[in-house]
Amino acid sequence: MLGALLGQALDRRLQLHNWAQVRERLGGRPALRNDELLFVLLGRLAKSDGRVVDGHIQQARLEMRSLDMSEAAQRRAIAAFNRGKSGNDRLRGYLRRLSTQPHAAEGVLRACWRMVWADGRASAAERELILLWGKWLGWTTQQVQALAADYEPNKRPLTSSAAYQEALRLLGVSATSEPSQIKRAYRRLLSRHHPDKIAGSGASQLQVREATEKTRELHSAYALIRERRDFR
Question: Which residue numbers delimit the J domain (predicted)?
């Protein structure tokens, strides 16, 4: 009874929703806002292999743009991303609470897979994290892994000239384009066809599926060009 009353008081006065948040507040770390949780997760993923690369940073920026964040919200997202890299947050309570919002939970998992494939590969550490977070969100291993297929670059042989030319065509660049030009083209197209952005504009399910397929093609094309041209 006392615990329940204390919990209600904490919720009213401090806007804390679980004991993990209480521990963080008492320990001097502010509890995560809903709009910060995603970027803490993305930061944790980006750092899981020990080094954050340019692809991770650019993917985080794409997520911000797709969510049409204000400048203040972007600053919070950047701080949350950096906070996630430290790996100090206990995320189970936050994700358990998010599990009551199926659409939001799926959006988080999809964003996580996009971050994983931002550098063209998915490490064992990254996969383990997403599967664990999916479990806390109430998803089965099979359901979480099924989402990965929407973002995993196709395995095309690097020796295939036709595949390389098709990748260049998809990004609207040439074999002599500078890496910086290729990166800009990739980011611009990815932002334009981002499934979450399309869904948020009131598009039909068919249009969202088409955007998802286009995004997968762009990921695959960029990964192929980057491997062939040997840049990150």
Answer: 166-232
